[in-house]
Amino acid sequence: NDLYPNVVNITNLPFEQQQFAQDVVQGLTKKQKTLSSKYFYDATGSKLFQKIMDLPDYYLTRAETEIFTYQKEEIISGFCSAQPFNLVDLGAGDATKTKILLRSLLQRQTNFTFVPLDISLDALQELQSNLALELPQLPVVPLAGDYFKALAQLKRESGMRQVIFFLGSNIGNFPFAEIKIFLKKLCQFLQAGDQLVIGFDLKKDPRLIRQAYDDAEGITAAFNFNLLRRINETFTGNFELNNFQHFAEYNPISGEMRSYLISTQDQEVTLQDLDFTLNLQAWEAIHTESSYKFSEAEIQVLAAEADLKTQLIFTDKNHYFADVLFSV
Ligand code: AVJ
């Protein structure tokens, strides 16, 4: 296998770990070492992300919650119809923000099914039992996995519309060039009449952005470190967490918020199950996440490139965040 010369026998691994193994080895073999942020979300990582959403420094969730709380009726009126629809929540997590709309939708006696979709099975199972208690009358069809693998399982009964939610600036994890590809791929699951609600974190004071990814309580650092812990646990690795530093930096031109794990010394790490050895030099960085920030003009360009029609734009009073309703 040319692409993954260091993966000796990943076929011995459970199926869901094979992709993880490939991505880890491929990323750590690159000249500029990288790990994909999609692997943050094991049970521990999902819990840590819930904590992040409550942090004073992490303004994103508060801003989007404000939008949903004060403008829920306008948002719902923008996509609600007499026709039945699936409300698909991409990367639903604990769905705290979506629930604000779900409650109103249930009051309106709308004919819809809630389809939470998440890469974390743990988060999804917890959401499912929580919804059974909090909103017992809500029809729920949870889907676990990668966005597109899970979307492929999505059924469309005739006459059923799809309304896709992609909230919380989840879209920010893609570089601009990939967003276009992502939106095009997403549109392959959609038809005329379907709609999209996407949450974008807006460009703002760069210090505020940086602080959101390097919070005073160190929860974001723990979230980043958890990726190494997960790799140790999954592949019998010996990453020594104390030999790494969390570092986060914002580029106000590209709008890219980057997070790294930086090796504080020369070290060798072994992932026993993968027969993989990694050498890190002192102060060498492993890139672990990019979270892009957008201007409203950039959002319009993306929409035009993906052939989406902007219907409504909702922002919070600080203009920190935007939820945009598009139609296909
Ligand atoms: C879940 C991808 C929206 O990028 O802001 C939070 C993840 N990373 N703190 C983000 C995250 C560090 C978050 N998203």
UniProtKB/TrEMBL annotation:
Stretches assigned to the Histidine-specific methyltransferase SAM-dependent domain: 20-326
GO MF terms, alphabetically ordered: methyltransferase activity
Pfam family, any one: Methyltransf_33
Entry keyword set: Methyltransferase, Transferase
Ranges annotated as spanning the membrane: none
Entry superkingdom: Bacteria
SUPFAM superfamilies attached to this UniProt entry: S-adenosyl-L-methionine-dependent methyltransferases
GO aspect biological process, one term: methylation
PANTHER family on file: ERGOTHIONEINE BIOSYNTHESIS PROTEIN 1
Name the record gives this protein: L-histidine N(Alpha)-methyltransferase
Protein's organism: Adhaeribacter arboris
Classification lineage: Bacteria, Pseudomonadati, Bacteroidota, Cytophagia, Cytophagales
Gene encoding the protein: egtD
